[in-house]
Fold this sequence. Notes:
With 163 residues, this protein is of the alpha/beta class. Helix content is 44%, strand content 20%. Strand 1 (23-27), helix 2 (33-39) and strand 2 (48-53) form a beta-alpha-beta unit.
Amino acid sequence: MQANLFDLAKTISKLHTQANFMISTAESCTGGQLAFLLTSISGSSRWFDRGFVTYSNEAKQDNLDVSLACLQQYGAVSKETAIAMAEGALAHSNATVSVVTTGIAGPEGGSIEKPVGTVWVALASKDQPAYAKHFLFSGDRLAVRDKTCEQALLELIKTLQKS
Length: 163
């Protein structure tokens, strides 16, 4: 895991001194790595509320209220599901902003339409409409997960700087 990831998490902690926010995460392909990075920072209890690891479709439905129709129509790795996850994480927490990862880390599970390395990162906040960004990463499973966390942290920093 890159030291850069911890530096990005530290940046989020520093932003808390300038703005009042509370974060929740909802993760699929990163399996809790994003929450781990954020909570590795001393004092994160002031700005980190909770994390959801919703690896299965059933967990996305049960914990985040992602609809079965959304999952069936678009799949777990899609803009629509990522946004639904972000909105669900916000609704089921005390957070003011949520950040989400969903994707195919590999080496199995890819398809022509959604190859290994396909990732969506989404954010929802009380102040701004939810949005999702698509990425296609190369590398092995760990590299895809690290790159996903890096992009999620960068997007979170951008969102928090707008608040």
